[in-house]
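Reviewer comment 2.1 asked that we show a complete input and output for one of the modelled complexes. We chose the zinc ion case, as it is the one discussed in the main text.
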Amino acid sequence: MKKYTYLTLVAFLFSVMLIAQKPKKLTSNQIYEKVQKLNFLGSALYIAAHPDDENTRLISYLANHEKARTAYLSLTRGDGGQNLIGPEIRELLGLIRTQELLAARRIDGGEQLFTRANDFGYSKYPKETLEFWEKDKVLSDVVWAIRTFKPDVIINRFDHRTPGTTHGHHTTSAMLSVEAFDLANDATKYPTQLKQTEVWQPKRLFFNTGRFFYRNENEFKNETEGKLTAFDVGVYYPLKGLSNNEVAALASSQHLCQGFGRLTTRGTELEYVEFLKGDKPKDASDIFAGINTTWNRINGGGDIGAILYEVEENFDFSNPSKHLPELLNAYDKIMLLEDSHWRKIKLNQIKEIIEAAAGLYLEVSATSSSTTPNGEVVIKIEVLNRSTITTFFDSYSFKENGVRVIKSPEKQLQNNVIVNITDIIKLKNTRYSDPYWLQNKGTLGMYAVNNQLEIGKPESDRPLQVEFNLNIWEHNITFTKDVVYRYSRSDVGEIYEPFEVLPEVTTKLNNKVMIFSDGTPKKVQVSVRAGTKNITGFVSLKAPSNWKISPKEIPFSIAQKGDNLMVDFLVTPPSNQSEGNLKSIATMDGKNFNKELVEINYNHIPKQSVLLDSEAKIVRLNIQKNGSYIGYIAGAGDVIPESLRQIGYNVLVIDPTKINNENLLKFDAVVLGIRAYNTVDVLKFKQKFLLEYVEKGGNMIVQYNTSGRGGIDVGAPYKLNVSSDRVTDETAKVRLLAKNHSLLNFPNKIEASDFDGWVQERGLYFPNEWGTEFIPILSMNDKDEPARNGSLLVAKYGKGHYIYTGISFFRELPAGVSGAYKLFANMLSIGKEK
Ligand SMILES: [Zn+2]
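Response of the prediction step:
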């Protein structure tokens, strides 16, 4: 018995890992679970703000125990987070997190929806959030999700009544949900949506609360007394060999870029919801109480239920194909349903069951990973029936851009005898298959998506499909399959990847930010990649008019698809401060190609191909520097060494375990990476040497460290209390407190304009108390908050200087913000005034 459970778990994990790309191959247990879901006509929508906000325990419980259609509406794709597994940030991180949500839903059985809101970074209050999100558009998208998904119940992850207690995006997600609950059924609101869908009134709205939202168990008990409904979500699923909590943990462990990998748990566990709005359920423990979730719910459903409940009750696990006559009979009746919403959902569900019960295997795989908008693709088709039911393979067809090719082999499929066909698809002006929400330039707070039918979709539809027209026991059924790319690697095995439509040629500037600290020209390398075979053309660079580029163009010729060619240009900056974008363009037959191809490949999500504008930021700084040799001690990860090297410093990365009382003396300054005292344990034993270095005349610069409930000791020479004060508005006014201090004057004069063009935030985890030895240099604050004066503190210690700063240099320097470079150069130069 033990062994059986283990094997089931292994099989489950294995299918989870590969299901992202591979065709689903359902076991009898899974077919039976699909029949159970087919026979439940209720839906739930879970709403929050970010990938990883969702409660997978509850989503899995609703999808697997209740059998409800369950979706998670994440308002954003999580572009603003950090990435613990790779270098992708911003829109590329949002893409990874989108795919992690889809991976989580493949495990917990939910569906995934989005809005056009972009996770622009941290905000404290909903008011601040809505300065970036266009409220009307995001609200419209929540209404659209409700009108199209048509949930019976909506469950909010966050409390709409407590702004300021959590991330502003969180509270806003709940507030918009409460508002949309009423608007979705009002035909005068967002009326253009009603060309594509209908109004909908969800039955009730809940807030999914828990101990998590309160300081302690007692506070939770006292404040929620009599208001909550609790139910046990720790149920066991014998068909899976897993507890609900195990499914939930496996699902949330997909959020790997956020460090969510965790242990599975089992056993009874209570989940709490608070009723907010709508029709209050009489049976508090059943969120669907009073909602008809049987086939009788819809006109004509009774007959279908009569057939399908019977199939569920007498299900033959050893031979599911035995039920095909009843399933096909029900299929015909579902086709005739008047209710188009349920017809579509139930048709998809029953087709999947029929396909699996008949042991059908229908696959169409391309012989290469991509093609071009007018290219050709060789495909291999595999059709197999593994049941005794009489089945004919009538025809298959491609439908893309009006071109429709139908071929009719008209062949009876013998039990377990495979049909293999090789064919060629010719494309005509097919659009690129990259993520639809990244195809147009949006704003900081919103993606630009114009097609209403695309809004909310988790990903772009795959570009090529094949329809298989089968006749099963006198019933005509069409199964649609995406073209996939299938190949094998001797060290991995069989691999499935999405098939893509991509440009004939793409280019890439290898450095995304180039800093010119003086007038010296720099070599700029462009990589040219062939998206098809035998391409020739020329590549050129475009920069603001005061920058010089030579040569004007460089010809290229590449024979093999996928091959790269490197070309070098010389870029000369103007004599004065200047910044702009450098764009690379490939030209072939008079047509310009201005995209870069970015491929993202991790084991837990399908391979992603993204097209971004091929460009880099170029900055000519007017910067003075004193000192040249910098020591750097890495913390949680930033690119300070690369940034400083770009402006001519010589940077040595120091192994913290090797620090002693002598080897720091050679440095003009020593810089600590972000969160060094949070992440590098050995620093507490080396602090005495660092301070000794300062005492002898050194210059030590400490970047931000986080302060938890117990605080953090950063070993400063004088009193210094790190707090969680932050300034999240990157445009917040910066006041110069110590106007005459060398940090603002030597060797670069810092002015108000040096704080223009900053990105994401000003800084974080500023100290809020410090000894009188420290001099606060700057003052800033978010709207409606007191002045924060601890962003940049400096103290003399012995003959040297100790600087502590929460300013987000780790964001500003890689973004090429010139004022941040000047201020950093001044920190490195302190003590070197003549
Ligand atoms: Zn969140």
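The radius of gyration is 30 Å. We note this here for comparison with the apo prediction described in Section 3.2.
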